[in-house]
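Write out the 3D structure for:
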Amino acid sequence: PTGGGKSLCYQLPALALPGITLVVSPLIALMKDQIDALRARGIAAQRLDSSLDAEGYRNVMDRLRSGELRLLYVAPERFNNERFRQTLSQLRVSLFAVDEAHCISEWGHNFRPDYLKLVGFAKAAKAERLLALTATATPAVLDDICRVLDIGADCAVRTAFYRPNLKLLFSPTTVEQRDHDLLARLNERPAGPTIVYVTLQRTAEQVAQRLADAGHPARAYHAGMDSDKRSVVQEWFVRSSDGIVVATIAFGMGIDKADIRYVYHYNLPKSLENYAQEIGRAGRDGKNAVCEMLACADDQNTLENFVYGDTPTAAAIDSFLHDLFAQEEEFDISLSALSRTHDLRELVARTLLTYLELQGYLKGGTPFYASYRFRPKMSSQDILARFQGPRRQFLAELLRRAHKARTWFDLDVDSAVAEMRQPRERIVAALDYLGEQDMLEVTAAGVRHRYRILQRPDSVKALAAKLYEHALRREESELARLQQVLALIEADGCQVAALSAHFGEQRDPCGHCAWCLNDGKPVRIPARRKTEIDPAVCAEAMTLRRQHPAVLGPARVVARFLCGVSSPALSKAKLTRHALFGRLAHVPFAAVEKHAQESAPATA
């Protein structure tokens, strides 16, 4: 379970095994917190993530190559970096640990397509052992993890999910009443370290300010803050005995703070899996902790918007596939450019490409950077003076091919490869070396993904329809997860037993959930507020649709626009700045989409 010691399952072996232990995790907070704790114990651990500057990156790579590090934490996206994969191929990887392994399953609650490729990366790195860990795998997701990572059934270990020290409360509320209810709870209960989970970044800021204004030690935490500010908040909270963090789900995963006494859900969680992870932050010291959800049915609108916003239109998938299969047999692409061209979120485009790989249409190669930039820290004359013979001649020719802007030089690596007739790997390795030796400050930009077409579909249109149906099934699955949360709140039976059953564990009534504490009476939350669609807003939207037919053609895109759900095409057309954007955010997405279809049913 969350807080049950999964991290020890790779930290302890890392000290006993001879090579490097590689820990793959999507959680920067987990990486930072665990590394701080390991260093405090004298254990050589580091991380590679987006928060590192050039000097920090160089330091990690130097320690990695020297064999000094025992543990290295990386995000799954790090394997898209050709320099990192090249370095990894030269090391002994004793253990390849996949944390948050539920991300492997596309039917899990937090599917990440990069996770599906991890077994290939582990094999390419010649990893001697593979370990997958998660707190939130349903029986079906556990089967998926074992299948994708080729783990035998006898090597799948499931421990008890139940946490007897957590009191689970579910309190009906309304949008207007919620702030009052939260303040009342904070005022009437003894102070203690507290996390208040919200859905939106702006909500985190607003609620933290309201609590601070009421005299509580509250701070916001979300992914929209820069990494330094997040670190300050995290470190403050870890040291505090009464601090309150109002956070999106970006906070708490892997935080090594055992004495969290309260976890409040200001907004509904998007799934039972998310809920289990978030309440799992509480009471890790074994002492009693309270987990209370302020249950408001109106939160469904925002959560549903996220789901609908991730589902591509049929037209977007069709144009995306026609673009791909019009390429030469071997090609490279920019995900960001594909995303903008076909109005697909980058994660959706990446997911579609992963499906095409799994179905045998494409084979992915090593991603690469289209261009490198460097800023000299010494003159080219001083750099070249450190080398002799062919190496000096090679570097002199390479540096001559860089074009100077103001202080930075740009190098087109593909052009250099063609003109110098040298392997790309040698050029990249040379730039890396000069950067590591502090002769240049090197940055890379414009990541491009290589693919080879293994087979072309008999009918692109039929394949597009198949992928669209798959996307709709995922949408239904995500919407069903939200309904499972509502069903748990209103369950006519022990809620702890119901949550345990979701994860494959059967239990008797717990005695410390809302149902048990209320003498077996189920909780009932007020229905969503009835909302009307303003005809004037729709009329304006239809006028705007006629002005932007290429962007606002599909009814789904019109609904995204009116519900305030951004997309690449809406952003590119600057429609996210329009006064109508988000005007119907208070209306269920499905109702807005239906109205848009009835207003102009011609476009799919």
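The chain is about 45% helix and 15% strand.
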